[in-house]
Amino acid sequence: MDYKVADLSLADFGRREIRLAEHEMPGLMAIREEYAEARPLRGAKIMGSLHMTIQTAVLIETLVELGADVRWVSCNIFSTQDHAAAAVVVGKDGTAEAPKGVPVFAWKGETLEEYWWCTDQALQWPDGSGPNMILDDGGDATLLVHKGAEYEKAGAVPAATEDDPEEWGIILETLRRTIDEKPGRWTEAAAAIKGVTEETTTGVHRLYEMAKEGKLAFPAINVNDSVTKSKFDNKYGCRHSVIDGLNRATDVLIGGKVAVVCGYGDVGKGCAEALRGQGARVVVTEIDPICALQAAMDGFQVTVLEDVVGKADIFVSTTGNFNIITAEHMAAMKHQAIVSNIGHFDNEIDMAGLAKTPGIVKTEIKPQVHEWRFPDGHTILVLAEGRLMNLGCATGHPSFVMSNSFTNQVIAQIELFTKTEEYPVGVYVLPKHLDEKVARLHLDALGVKLTELTKEQADYIGVHVEGPYKPDHYRY
Ligand code: NAI
After folding, report:
1. How many Cβ atoms are within 10 Å of 306's Cβ, its own excluded?
2. What is the pLDDT of residues 7-62, one digit of tens each?
3. Which residue of 199, 340, 387, 409 shows the fewest CB atoms closer than 10 Å?
4. Whether residue 329 lies in the annotated active site
5. How sure is the predictor about 239, in pLDDT bands with cuts at 50, 70 and 90?
6. Is 296 helix (H, G, I), strand (E, B) or coil?
7. ipTM of the complex, rounded to two decimals
8. CA distances from residue 245 to 152, 162, 274, 313, 365 in whole angstroms, order as listed
């Protein structure tokens, strides 16, 4: 078996944590039971690009139990939990000497070159074939296949320009090398893929853009916009893991501090609530009047970053947009202000601009925590080099919330793989009855008793007794 992880001797530790996580992931375990005989993913060759954590290990092993042949990478250079990666490679019945699990190419602290090498490795099976399904988080695997096919069609991979970010040059280099090795590979791969299921807001945004431009090569299910994903993982998950990231990175007391949350979407709402829960005085920035009004009604001060940049102690960017916290902002911050991003990509914070500030000195306090000293002597602390801090500095979301997200993922994989003809190229969300099913699978574990509609009540509000209970436009 081909794989590349940090250290297979961590597998036992990983397996013990996977065992605990399974109990906290009732949705995934129920799906395993429901499909134990049918094994609807038999024949599926799934390439997954999603943070290689303990929770993801339970997802991977669920896909395998449903019959899939899986290869995996992390979708971020810092988010891999090495013991989880080791346990998945070794598998339940394997040993470090004779691993029997799933090929994983991921370790904590990859370089960008290694990251794209890993993505390429997971997109290629030992017999030279590619996947027939992608499970993506942020869209990097989908991007590589699409760009590869596009440049093969054009006959050449363009050169990176001076204005391009460093990572784009690495992506182009990866494509150039792989096309040289096997011309036509990406065109073939794109044609063989039945579909992709996408985990996060940023990846979904990329998919809709591609669909709009007519460039999408295969159907996609937007898992993010299942209610039981974005209204739970993005909100309650971040409500938990933003504090975890700050604590493990800095251990600074949050109570009494001024914390700025940039963006008041699902992630921002969770982060703002968590920081307030710790006693921070929370300030929100927004560009959308609706979200700004929501933040104000929820009791937060809403203003522009420039108003608070010199007064705040903690900054968390949650927008999925770029250049939110600029080098100029950071230069104007208080001594030892903490700067972090929990959005998918690192460009929310202008790290390149920060590094170019004349006279700036970077000191590593510990991995994923860096102090940047400005020429005037004041410093700021940047978490996870500007990458998502909850996965870079802590262990991401807890199992229970990820069980909701990943149950949607598995259902979406089954949908696209088994009902391919029902999904012409386009971007879809799962039907509401499946969304409600995911929620239902998580009620017992929390001791929730659900009220049942009578037939008369159901008729009165115009729904079926067994659901769906809301129209598609309902916002929760
Ligand atoms: P969203 O679209 O619900 O929220 C983003 C908000 O930022 C919007 O309300 C938007 O108006 C606002 N915004 C955009 N530009 C802004 C600017 N210049 N200044 C202030 N506000 C601005 O998206 P969601 O679901 O909250 O996701 C945000 C990001 O977090 C995405 O990149 C997503 O992929 C990522 N994500 C990260 C997770 C993690 O565990 N770290 C979990 C879930 C999502």
Report:
1. 11
2. 999 999 999 999 999 999 999 999 999 999 999 999 999 999 999 999 999 999 99
3. 387
4. no
5. very high
6. helix
7. 0.99
8. 41, 34, 12, 15, 15
Q: Tokens in use for 205?
A: 């945004």
Number of neighbouring beta carbons within 10 Å of residue 297:
9
pLDDT of residue 15: 98
Please name the residues in contact with 445: beta carbons below 8 A apart, sequence gap of 6 or more.
Answer: 24, 26, 400
The pTM score is 0.97
Ligand 1 pocket mutation, candidates 234, 303, 345, criterion most atoms within 8 A of CB: 234
Binding residues for substrate: 53, 137, 199, 229, 233
- Tokens 């004779």 correspond to 98
What is the position in ligand 1's atom list of the atom closest to the CA of 269? 26
Residues 176-216: tens digit of each pLDDT: 999 999 999 999 999 999 999 999 999 999 999 999 999 99
Name residues contacting ligand 1 (CB within 6 A): 200-202, 230, 233-234, 237-238, 262-268, 285-288, 291, 318-321, 324, 342-344, 388, 390, 397
Count of CA atoms in the C-beta half-sphere (13 A) of 156: 3
**How large is the C-alpha radius of gyration of the chain?**
22
